[in-house]
Every structure is written in structure tokens, then in C-alpha cells.
Amino acid sequence: MTLSVNKEDIIDGVQKAGLVIPTKSGQAYLRSLWLKAEQGNLHIMSTNGDIEFTGRYPAEIMEPGLVGVQGRAFVDLVRQLPSGKLDISQDENAGTMLLKHGRRSYKLPVSNAEWFQPFHDFPEENSIVWSGDFLQELLYKVDFCISDDINDDGLSCLCIKAAENGRVDACGLDGHHLAHFSFVHDELAARLPEKGILIQKKYTQDMKKWLGPDDIELNITDKHICLRTMDGKESLTLPRSMYDYPDYTVFLAKLAQQNTSIAVMDRKENMEALGRIQIFLSNNDQAVYMEFTNTEMQMKAQGHDTGSAQENMEVTFKGDVSRIAFHTRHLLNVISHFISSTVELTMTEQEGPCGVRGKIDQDYVVLIMPMKIVEDAYYSEDKDQ
After folding, report:
1. Ordered alpha helix ranges (H), 125-254
2. pLDDT one-digit tens code per residue, 240-298
3. Is residue 235 exposed (0-12), middle (13-18) or buried (19+ Cβ within 10 Å)?
4. Is the separation of the CB atoms in 165 and 150 below 8 Å?
5. What interhelical angle do 71-80 and 7-20 show, nearest 10?
6. Strands 52-58 and 342-347, bridge-based pairing
7. How is the chain split into domains, by residue range?
8. What is the per-residue DSSP string for 350-379?
9. Which of 41, 73, 257, 345 lies at 20 to 30 Å from 312 by C-alpha?
10. How many Å apart are CA 281 and CA 14, to the nearest integer?
11. How far apart are CA 382 and CA 361, in angstroms?
């Protein structure tokens, strides 16, 4: 294999390929970044055994070939080299690849082509177009509610499932939070299987790193979710998970009950107050306690060794759940994912699920579970003061 290629043409693909290579030791095939030179293009490929990345970039091919190079070393080297032409050749007798850049030259050990296992081709039939920007937004709105524990089976996955009238639900659930984002995409709704598709959270992180603002092609097979740029130059293949996903509509239905309590408040003011309250919390005291009147919310927190905090802010409140407690950091994280100037808390019970919505954040709701209020005495004033 002998070729010349400009660093600027491949650096983005090299770095994306490097993100897929396993960080821990594994088989040489998985640690390798595979280079295939043919028909005026350099193909860059990498896999961790589950995810596959493929990129195709223009190059001057003098001699076609396929070789695997030590992935981490190749990525780091190309990234640190100045812009300009890279001359790459393989010395089959020495078992090395020679990379030249001006007066610089480097030799890297290679894996023989016999070790290469073919990657999955992007399935052309029935592919659909999806906005990369929109998919990034979906992942941002839902991903933080997916369980980090891979042993949680379905709860460790993003669920994308068809609903009625061409709508699609995206859901993340970890037992304490539920994020639900609904949108219209007729073609995607028609292509999704009845139970939807599940993508493990660890793979959604790879999707975030690969996605850009441009449209992409998406296709679904029995075992994989396949993504490709519209020009066909890059593709990412992810495995589908086959767990059973909980019926999240049961939790959402609770918000539609007639006996809910609703508090509307300024999002920015609430986030700033929660940020200050966090200063007074400790590992054993993470709760913020809220009390409501028709026009005001009082927030209190206390740490055994850190002191106490109290903040009052204007709200619009209606209902019977006048006292409730939340994990401060979790509530702050939930509210930070909204862009509306005001947020609405829909409380079902003092210890039942609470829904968070924003007027501008259409078709988006996050459920958060309150904490149990243990000590009523917390709210009393110190008689000695």
C-alpha cells in the first residue's frame, strides 16, 4: 500500500475513528485503526467489537492495499503533525508502516490484512433522512435520565418508539427520573418496530461525538442502527439492545390526574437559588424543602456541618401539595435542560412523581421523584433565637 493524502482531509475522520478504539487492552484487531487504499480514496475504519466507524477521504493512491496500524499511536501522531501532505507506505517485509511528513518520518507496527474482519455496509433500502441538529437535541434532552448502570438492562438504554399520528417518543428512565420528548417524523414512525428500538447509553455517547449539524441518513436492521452522512463519506453502526422497556406511559398518565398541584416559577431565578442552596448541603443532607402559598415559594436546606439556607421567590401556585422535597442537584440538573423562561412543576403527591415542563419546550416533560420528608421539626424556628 502506497498513498499520499493531506492531513486536513483526514484529521476529522482519524479522530472520530480514535474515539471508537477501546481504551483498555483488547485484541490487536480492535486496537487497530484500519487503512484501506483504493480507487482514489483512503478508507479509515475502527471498531470496539460493537460500534463500527467508517470514513472515506480523497487521496492519491499509488498502490492499493489494506493494513491495520496501532490505533492510538496513529491518531496521536497525525493529530500532532502540522498541516500538509502525508506519505504513507507499507513495508511488508519489515511488518511496519512508514509515514513521512516533509523531513519527518515515522515507523509504526502493523496488523496484517488477514486479521481484518469486514465491516457492515450501510443498508440502502428504506433509509430515512434525519436532522443531525435535531438528533443532538433529542440526546441532550433525554440522555441524562438514562441509567449509567449497564446491569439495569432496559433502563440503561434510550428508547425510541412510534406513537400515534406519525409521532415518535424518545424516552430515558433510570428509576428516579424520566425524560420524555415527543416529535413528528412520519417516515421514522413507519420504520420503527412495534416495540421501538433501544440504544445503550454508552453508545449514545458515541453518537454525540460523531453527529454534526447536517442531515444524516438512518436505517434500522434486526441487530443494528446505521447512521451515515448524506454524502456517504462517513458511517457509524451501533448495536440494538433487545431488552424489554418499561411502559413509561403509566408514569406520564399520572400528570393528567385532576388532583395535581401546579407551581409556575422563573427558571433562571430558581436555578440560581438552588445553586446557592447546594453550598449548604453535605453528603448526608441533599434535600431542598419547598413550601408553597398561592404567590410564594419558600425553599430551605440544612447540612449538619455546613449551616442552613432559606430563599423565598414569587410563584403562582394552585393545589393541595403545599410541601415537598427534592434532591437538590437532581432538580437543578432537570431544570437546566429547559430553555423556557418559566418552568411548571406538576406535583401528583408529596411523594409521587413530579412533572417539569416549559412553555417553549414543546412536547418535552421530565419526571422527578421527590424525597421523603422525615422531620416535621425541621420547619420549626429555634425558640432560643
Report:
1. 132-142, 186-191, 201-210, 249-254
2. 999 999 999 999 999 998 899 999 999 999 999 999 999 998 878 899 999 999 999 99
3. buried
4. no
5. 140
6. unpaired
7. 2-115, 128-244, 255-379
8. TTS-EEEEESSSTTEEEEEPPBP---GGGG
9. 257
10. 44
11. 42
**CA gap 198, 193 in Å, rounded:** 11
Range 2-115 classified under CATH 1.20.1250.20: no
Cα angle: 123, vertex 127, 133; to 5 degrees? 120
Bridge partners for 249 per DSSP = none
Helix (H) / strand (E) element for 271: namely helix 267-278
Distance CA 129, CA 212 (A): 14
Q: pTM for the whole thing?
A: 0.89
Map grid coordinates 399520572 to a residue. Answer: 254
Helix or strand run (H / E) with residue 145: none
> At the fourth CATH level, which superfamily is domain 255-379?
DNA Polymerase III, subunit A, domain 2 (3.10.150.10)
Query: Side chain identity at 351, as an amino acid letter?
Result: E
